[in-house]
Amino acid sequence: xxxxxxxxxxxxxxxxxxAATSPAPVATATSGPEAxxxxxxxxxxxxxxxxxxxxxLWSDGGRASGQxxxxxxxxxxxxxxxxVQVGASGAPEAAAGGQYVRVxxxxxxxxxxxxxxxxxxxxxxxxxxxxxxxxxxxxxxxxELREERL
Length: 150
Hints:
By secondary structure, this protein is α+β, with helices and mostly antiparallel strands. Helices cover 27% and strands 32% of the residues. The protein has four helices and five strands. Strands 1, 2, 3, 4 and 5 form a five-stranded antiparallel β-sheet that branches. Residues 1-30 have low confidence and may be disordered.
């Protein structure tokens, strides 16, 4: 019987190797609509004042929004209603460790005083290549919205 020497293992090297060899999510015909559905769910949560759920649709547990959960909720303090029209998203594109897709939007927010504010722009959503349904779910990575003056 031949003895095999024990070699110390670097856990970081194993993790890096697994990440490098994990298959990327496959772009399908439903990838764009799935990402658009996340944006619709985001605005539905905001409209029902479920800021925790809306915050959770941002990447990195909400931190990709650039705000704390409290700051995020406070940003909608004067918003009484919100409507979103989601345009056709582009095809998902490959990114390091996953995919991303851009989803165009037009948003009308009704303020507490009855006035309305209109915004247009896009959300960039990302999903990771890591295994598991949660890791491969589309999440908002960034938003590029500008207010439209009437």
